[in-house]
Amino acid sequence: MTERTSVLTVKARRSGAPALEARAVLRPAVRRLGAVALGFAGGWAVLYGALMPFGLGLVLGLAEDCFAPCAAGAALGVLLHGFGALSLRSVCLLCALGAAVAVRWVWPGRFLPAVLAGCGTLAAMGLCFALGTGGGAELALFCTADALLAGLLGLALRRFPPEKPGFGTLLTGAAVAAALGNLPLERFFPGVAVCAAVELVLCSRGQPGAALACSGMLGAALCAADPALACAAAGLACGASAACILAPGRRVEAAAAYAGGCVTGVLCVQPPGQAFAVLFSAGAGILCVLTLPKSWLAPVAAPADRSQPVERARYPAAATRLEAVAQSLSSLAETVNDVYNALPHRCESYRWVIDNTHDSLCFNCGRREQCWKQEYAATLEGMEALRPLLEENGRLEPAQLPGQLSRCIHPAALCAAAARSFALYRSRKESRLHAEAMRTVFTEQYSAVAEALAVLGEQLGRPGEPEPYRSDRVAAFFTSLGSPPLECAVTLDDLGRTHAAVTLPRTRFGPQELAALAREVGRICRRTLETPQVLSCKGMTTLLFSERPVLRAVFGMAGAAAQGEVSGDAVQQFCSPTAAQMILCDGMGTGRPAAVDGNLAAELTARLLKAGIPAELAARLVNVALALKSEEESGATLDLISVDLYTGTARLFKAGAAPGFLVHGGRARAVGDVSLPVGILGGVNGQSRVVHLCAGDYAVLVSDGLLVDGTAWVVKQLELSAAAGEAPAQVAKTLVETARARALRTGRPDDITAAVLRLENGG
Predict the structure, then answer these.
(1) Residue 396: Cβ within 10 Å count
(2) What is the pLDDT of residue 315?
(3) Using CA atoms, how far apart are residues 401 and 423, in angstroms rounded to an integer?
(4) Which phi and psi (to 5°) does residue 465 adopt?
(5) Is residue 398 within 8 Å of residue 435, measured between CB atoms?
(6) Strand, helix or coil at 558?
(7) DSSP letter string over 708-746?
């Protein structure tokens, strides 16, 4: 039964809204600045006086929005470490950083190509310099060791992201500790001071496990950076152990226990005279912690959420089942192809027509011995001469028989038998080709669906870090409205963004009600949320809340048909919770047949993108759908752009589409190369590209009819429109009207469409 819930009027507390919005805008910049600082520390750090793996390892392991700033910081650290002296080792490291960044831009999210490019470049250049300079085996050895350690570090950071507390955070802390341990300050060790402060903060907050883990990892990093700091590592370990055992969660007592443990540990390793500088540095870190506000060192209470184990276990189970289904479908496709390749294939040629004619007519003829034995060569030559006649007309007349067959006593029967054999041969050949085409299409469909399920399983396998307290408060809010939720989960993703999913009995909401719900749920979560996305299925309604992105997308489109009112171009423009999507499909030809192909491709692609399927897999599935749509050849270009509204990262995918255009900083440029449309081949010949956009930039997708006079005039027009700050709808209208006038002058009319997206500040 369908119900309607009226949202009560709630006065949202807007006092913190500007601060929250400012924090949402500044968060990406802060992340990138932190990546620059972390990269600088990695480039500066040296282990055991020779190894420098942290810079390249951090570039390989950090997230997509942080690896480029990290590489810039690492390059600066490498250059400054030698105080301006550019050594062969520095050249190798800088080239490896550049190779890793270039490959990560070309293949985003792919670890293996990046590690092969970065580590391979480092090892190869070390070897080349060693061979070129002579006697430089030490350089090659150190570069190879750096490459291996950097690859392992990058793999560890991919498996354990540093945004989440755990092993990844410890690795980044080790890089900072090693960098501070290499600072040439006399009688003061900043690495010891910082490590002591971090460990004491964790002890004061009642996190003994994290404090002991930091003590071990940071102490090892200090020792690797400078063996003279071994006594410092021992003192810090003793101090952390004493504070965690004697006074966990108590500020002053923990500081006293930590100081006593440091003194005991240092004096047990070093004589008093040499230990003074270490104890002075550790004492500086302890004093810094004691000056912090008490609220910053309040003990962290363990979450008492009884439903958390059940909820966390549900997603991995679903992900495992989806992965199993994906593997089964992929195995099915591979098995079908393997069996087909293993079976003996019947390779029939025109010789089969000759043999079949002999068996059906000449086998019982009285002149068989003379024709097929005594004059075999002449008879075979005559039968071969019939082939062009059969291929052209499909039938024969007795008068068309060549001279070699003029002795046949049944000329009419010979013509009929040869025509029947050739018709059967052509039919069997067409059936075999059709069967192979269908097998290719279905195995491609199985493979594409298997990869799509694997992607969805991966998304379910990492649902985010749950926030039980906020989940309970959001559930209580909906209960107070008279609609208790079936499920309610508030989570933080890998980048610290808040998401909330609330599943209710089937309910209808109006726009004003959804806006009010977003304001109230945002107040509960202390975040500014977007209007929720509504999903309805099988008597349930799910509201998906997402944190308001930094950017906002404004769409516009215009089009003109080549003839009549039906255009073969189709456009889809929409925003998912985290990205703006724009799709343009151009059906082959013009008129209604092209419109069917274009709209089918655009609609299917939009549905798949909304379900979370990547563009490449969506193109494969659409390719299969067009191939099976009808017996006639079907095809459509696929042109789409997906813009992350939090980071401005734009991913373009083109399959047979005309070049698109990007306007960045007031300058326009064309992007895209020539490829085949979807629905033509068994696979998809598409091209992907990643670019970075910001507020005020434009992205324009056009059909080939708009480029009848090339791309130069489009670039100039877009720069003029961007300088004038025109709305996307006006930009699209101007492009289409100008292209229509140019097409009429050249006499080459075609469907013309322009789809425009402009990014604006989310506030």
Answers:
(1) 20
(2) 52
(3) 18
(4) -85, 115
(5) no
(6) strand
(7) TT-SHHHHHHHHHHHHHT--HHHHHHHHHHHHHHHHHHH
- Give the mean pLDDT of 322-344: 58
When the pLDDT of each residue in the chain is averaged and rounded to a whole number, the result is 77
- The residue whose two tokens read 């670890």 is 111
3-state secondary structure of 319: helix
CA dihedral 207, 208, 209, 210 (to 10 degrees): 50
Distances (CA, A) of 281 to 178, 181, 194, 278, 528: 16, 12, 9, 5, 43
Question: How far apart, in whole angstroms, are the C-alpha atoms of residue 173 and residue 197?
Answer: 13
Distance of alpha carbon 91 from alpha carbon 132, whole angstroms: 14
Name the strand (E) or helix (H) holding 651: strand 649-655
Query: Degrees (nearest 5) of the Cα angle 520, 525, 530?
Result: 60
Could you tell me if 729 and 559 are in contact, meaning their C-beta atoms sit under 8 angstroms apart? no
- Which of helix, strand or coil describes residue 82? coil
Q: Quick: pLDDT tens for 690-706.
A: 888 888 899 999 988 88
What is the maximal distance between C-alpha atoms in the chain?
123
Question: Structure pTM?
Answer: 0.47
Pairing mode of beta strands 3-4, 507-508: parallel
* Matching residue, tokens 């580590």: 119
* Tens digit of each residue's pLDDT (9 = 90 or more) over 380-424: 888 888 888 887 887 888 877 887 777 787 888 888 888 888 888
- DSSP class of 306: S
pLDDT tens, position by position, 454-480: 666 666 655 567 788 888 899 999 988
Query: How do strand 752-761 and strand 551-560 relate by DSSP bridges?
Result: antiparallel
Distances (CA, A) of 586 to 194, 598, 620, 688: 60, 5, 17, 18
**Measuring CA to CA, which residue among 571, 578, 572, 501 is closest to residue 541?**
501
For 178-222, the pLDDT digits (tens) are 888 877 677 787 878 888 888 888 888 778 888 888 888 888 888
